[in-house]
Amino acid sequence: MDQNKAPIYEALEQFRRMRVVPFDVPGHKHGKGNPELVKFLGRQCVEIDVNSMKPLDNLCHPVSVVREAEQLAAEAFGAKNAFLMVNGTTSSVQSMILSVCKRGDEIILPRNVHRSVINALVLCGAVPVYVNPEVDKHLGISLGMKTEQVQKAINEHPDAVAVLVNNPTYYGICSDIKAIFKMAHDAGMLCLADEAHGTHFYFGKDMPVSAMAAGADMSAVSMHKSGGSLTQSSFLLIGENVSEGHVRQIINLTQTTSGSYLLMSSLDISRRNLALRGSDVFSKVIDMANYAREEINLIGGYYAFGKELVNGDSIYDFDPTKLSIHTRDIGLAGIEVYDILRDEYDIQIEFGDIGNILAYLSIGDDPQGLERLVSALAEIERRYQRDTKGLLSQEYIAPTVVISPQDAFYAPKESLPLRESVGRVSSEFVMCYPPGIPILAPGERITPEILDYIEYAKIKGCSMTGSEDPDILNINVLK
Amino acid sequence: MEMWFSEFHAPDVKHSLRVNKHLYSAKTEFQQIDIFDTPEFGRVLALDGNVMLTERDEFIYDEMITHVPMSVHPYVRDILVIGAGDGGVVKELTRYKTIERIDLVEMDPQVIEACRIYLPENACRLDDERVHIYFDNALRFIRRCKNKYDLIIVDSTDPFGPYEGYFTREFYGICYNALREDGIMVNQQGSPFYKHDAEELQRSHKRIVNTFPISRVYQAHIPTYAAGYWLFGFASKKYHPIDDLKAKEWTELGLETQYYTPRLHEGAFYLPKFLERMLEEVE
């Protein structure tokens, strides 16, 4: 296929020229009914916010330009089929899991998954079998899954239907997914990947292997993160072992029937850009990230980590575009550096947690911006550096799953003050957002160390989400 | 044929110069550089379509950004100049015999190349043996310096473009760190008249106030800049711009100037009421 083509974009341009009179939704009618919105977003943008129609195809049942865009995307990503997704990568992840799991099925996965994965288990009633990720004690981050641990889980749960991997984690860490997928396939299990942070693996040179290249059956790819499309747009990819029609049915269970052409055209144009120029674009991103790592490590105190961490197993590979920086040795929690950067330096980074920050580099960055970030970090070190006493390291707390997330979520429950909940089973999530990896998920036993961690994260200023009580003073537990 | 160069001073205000001849035009990695000849203002350098200097009025800017700090600090040996690829600031500074070293950091080598050819009057002292030119991002360059300079002069374009980083908290912070304990930083602060310029002025003034113990603003009248009214920031670790003015000593140097005098120096710090208010809001 010709990757120079962008069928949705081309159809929209054609549509614009037709000057069609709209007696359909949306009611703003190419913006005429909402001049304030046009002034804010621009006519170009509002004019193509239209409904599905014959010349523009239909996302729920694509037969023409949307289908062609999906085929082009499939080819660009090396998949059998690709689905354009407009409800976020959350919907890609959920459709992926709902396609392969049903109530009572077991699924093997690392605990440091995004909340959307466990949400999907709440929806479908599957039971998680967690593989505890390795932890880097100094950095305080969860690493990848060791292959022997995955093998052990497969042996202990031979009826599990699928294995899911993060490729990579938020911090850029990759497991040996080729080996893991082979083990899973040998045991008759399907292989799923959450590649919310791995779009660029499909296009860049010297990148960790992408899930589809490693033999995955399905992957959720967040095109809007490193790929440059609009927020909320995403791809779901499938391989030979999965039926296209079945996945489409699953997607249509929860996906909007009014797919946004702004989002779809952004996927189309971004796919074309990456297919044609991705290799050059991402080698520039890698150069910038490497440069920033060197400069930040020169400041002293910080540790911007990279490929040197690779150990052949729990850190099988590292995503060179991720600029993750350990801050605890200057006496500041990552979340504190994150807040200072925004409040005092007008620099917004992706997230800060207990010990680290992550600056997200992508196709839109330039060296001038990076110089600001590095200089601001140097200034923060000079102005705020203090003793590291009293700073917690982020520990991975191995969860005890008592009942399935779905059973816990829907079970009779009561609300208890946090400290009185020790020993009870949580019926809800608690997490810092970002990164959105649950500290506690429905169905897990609450322990004193989990509560210590939640309270420390609150004090340091992490934005906590997931629970019914927005202040997380109380928590819902099973009766 | 009539040829005019126009620049937006505000979204609804244009300033135009008649052009005799377009002498130079180049698009670099960083910006669009143009040099043209005009009947009223002589040769003009524009970056991204904004007038940086004209032969006719550059003396005002160059004198005010250099002689003000030089007449306050008693003994300036090492100077860092940021931007200033046209050479005008360096031309003024090299007139002081006591200066030992001038480091000039310019991001875009083509600005210097073009000015050497088309604005030789301005660029004439860039070859002075005390001048060391570095083509680098200033944030990167200064970050590596500590306690090294007596004076830093920030001669950049406006804060909407490749030089945006030179109006930030982190930039002022690393400048502070690169200055000796009695060092001074002077920067161009834009115009206070039009709304979006005024907002930027407040933002950068606030950042400087938060970084340096002494921070004052002074003014000059420069016809080709927005509203013809331009400001400079004087930020200092120790010396006060008026209390520590060494008028007698400076006069004894016998430097010939066209705009600057020690009397004007004092007056330049007396600001109109609306501007005082604007600055006080963020102090």
Please sum up the structure shown.
Chain A is α+β, with helices and mostly antiparallel strands and about 475 residues long. Chain A has 15 helices and 20 strands.
What secondary-structure arrangement, pairings included, does this model have?
The complex is a heterodimer of chains A (479) and B (283).
Chain A: H1 7-18, H2 35-41, H3 43-47, H4 65-77, E1 81-85, H5 88-100, E2 106-110, H6 115-124, E3 127-131, E4 135-136, E5 141-142, H7 147-156, E6 162-166, E7 173-174, H8 177-186, E8 190-195, E9 218-221, H9 223-226, E10 234-238, H10 244-254, H11 261-299, E11 303-305, E12 317-318, E13 322-326, H12 334-345, E14 351-352, E15 356-360, H13 367-384, H14 405-410, E16 413-417, E17 430-432, E18 438-440, H15 448-460, E19 464-465, E20 474-478
Parallel strand pairs in A: 2-3, 2-6, 6-8, 8-9
Antiparallel strand pairs in A: 1-10, 4-5, 7-12, 9-10, 11-13, 13-15, 14-15, 16-20, 17-18, 17-19
Helix pairs in contact in A: 1-11, 4-11, 5-6, 5-10, 7-8, 11-13, 12-13
Chain B: E1 4-10, E2 13-18, E3 21-27, E4 32-38, E5 42-47, E6 50-54, H1 58-70, E7 78-83, H2 88-93, E8 101-106, H3 109-118, H4 120-123, E9 131-135, H5 138-143, E10 149-155, H6 169-178, E11 179-190, H7 195-209, E12 214-221, E13 229-236, H8 247-252, H9 262-268, H10 273-282
Parallel strand pairs in B: 7-8, 7-10, 8-9, 10-11
Antiparallel strand pairs in B: 1-2, 3-4, 4-5, 5-6, 11-13, 12-13
Helix pairs in contact in B: 7-10
